[in-house]
Amino acid sequence: MAQEANNDANLLDDNFSNILLPPLDVLFENAKNSPVYEMADVKAAIERKLLAKEKRSVLGFFSLRGSYQYGMFGNESTYTDVAIAPYLTYSTQAQNGYTVGAGVNIPLDQLFDLKARVTRQKLSVKSAELEREIKYDEIKKNIIEMYAMATSQLKVLQLRSENLVLSNLQYEISEKNFANGTIESNELADYKERQSQAREAYENSKFELTKSLMILEVIARTPIIKK
Question: Are 132 and 41 in contact (CB under 8 A)?
């Protein structure tokens, strides 16, 4: 009977006995792939790009312009003299030309506000980075809570599994004793009630553990339960 109980225990815990929770630092690192963290990271990256743009905004005070032309230019003229009748002459020549120029336009309000704009954008970058770290700390806190809960539930499930195996064994023995007439039906009913309670407690623990592990998988972006 003890050997049978051992086999039953292995069967009951088949889906959970091989579960090994990854180290917390692995879960923390994988959690950076979560949408909450990535969204905060993207926001910080956008603010850094805007800071770089503000630092280059001084270039907006200057402008360059230029043009280039190429083509055939024609010249038409009329010549006459007292002794010569008027006659028309026409000539063409290929020509090219270009112009280059530069300009400076400095709005005083933008010039005096340039340093302040850069400072404000630096603060925006810092704010976005702090928001990202706050989100990350919240994620790590949730991971720690679910990790501790799952660790505790694994131990409780093992205890309730052993209790269920024992209850099954006691009920099997009581069935044989009842068949042999050594116990009454009310005693058999008591053993059955204990078995049912042990089964219910085991199933509840299994449900709670499964829920905790699935939540941990979602938060940490890490597969834990073997499919």
Answer: yes
pLDDT at residue 56 in the model: 83
- Contact call for residues 139 and 219 (beta carbons, < 8 A): yes
d(CA 58, CA 174): 91
Tokens of 220: 């940490």
d(CA 63, CA 111): 16
Pairwise CA distance, residues 190 & 202, whole Å: 18
Taking the alpha carbons of 171, 172, 174, 179 in that order, is the dihedral positive or negative?
Answer: positive
Task: Supply 6's token pair.
Answer: 């051992």
Give me the sign of the Cα torsion angle 44, 49, 52, 54: negative
* Cα distance between residue 112 and residue 225, in whole Å: 60
Alpha-carbon Rg for the chain in angstroms: 43
CA pair distance 152, 82, nearest whole angstrom: 123
- Sign of the CA dihedral running 187, 192, 193, 199: positive
Length of the chain: 227
| pLDDT beyond 70 at 79 | no
Query: 70-79, 141-150, 166-175: which range is least confident on average?
Result: 70-79
- Four-residue CA torsion sign, 141, 143, 149, 151: negative
In whole angstroms, what is the distance from residue 41 CA to residue 132 CA?
Answer: 6
